């Protein structure tokens, strides 16, 4: 009996360890009803299944980012994606009630995709387009990185052994890619870094091709220039990463 219990315990431990890194998703779509000349919202994201800490962390992080994207007046009390969708439509109706000339319907499209996953890390990109009047809408990307083993979201400072060292390295690569002289202001060729100093973008994400630095339109250049991307192969980035990857 004792040996049987020991065997069962060992099996349980092995199964638990094997399942620790397991993660599955199912598609989640939230959208307004389709109609002509109506404000529209469409959200399509991967929803992590199960009740693990990692699943809850991923779903909570995605929800928080999307609620923020749909928050037009910064006073919304939305606590779910459904509430955020309804608040976006309500804000449009409120605005057109006060300013009937602002009658162009609003639009919000948000799509989530997994850009990288292995046993240690998963990165999800949220790509969005939001139009709330004016000459054009605004497209943006958010990269969310997660530690699969510990079930936590990773912020910029969590990704590197030494953030300052990586910034110096990234600046050299950025100058080379954009043909900016090694000496002198980072804005010599027309970029718009504040304080004339290089800084990392708000968005960093793991991809199959390497670590992606993603500067949004307006972040360091004009809207017409679009996003500025720098992909650093893992063979170069691994020296600085807390989570190095196979090249």
TrEMBL record:
Q: Could you tell me which residue ranges the DUF3298 domain spans?
A: 158-235
InterPro entries listed in its UniProt record: DUF3298, PdaC, PdaC/RsiV-like_sf
Q: Gene3D superfamilies, alphabetically?
A: Fervidobacterium nodosum Rt17-B1 like, Heat-shock cognate protein, ATPase
Q: Which Pfam families match?
A: DUF3298, PdaC
- Lineage, uppermost ranks: Bacteria, Pseudomonadati, Bacteroidota, Flavobacteriia, Flavobacteriales
Residue intervals of the Deacetylase PdaC domain? 36-137
Transmembrane residue ranges: none
Q: Which PROSITE patterns match?
A: PROKAR_LIPOPROTEIN (PS51257)
- Which protein, by its recorded name, is this? Uncharacterized protein DUF3298
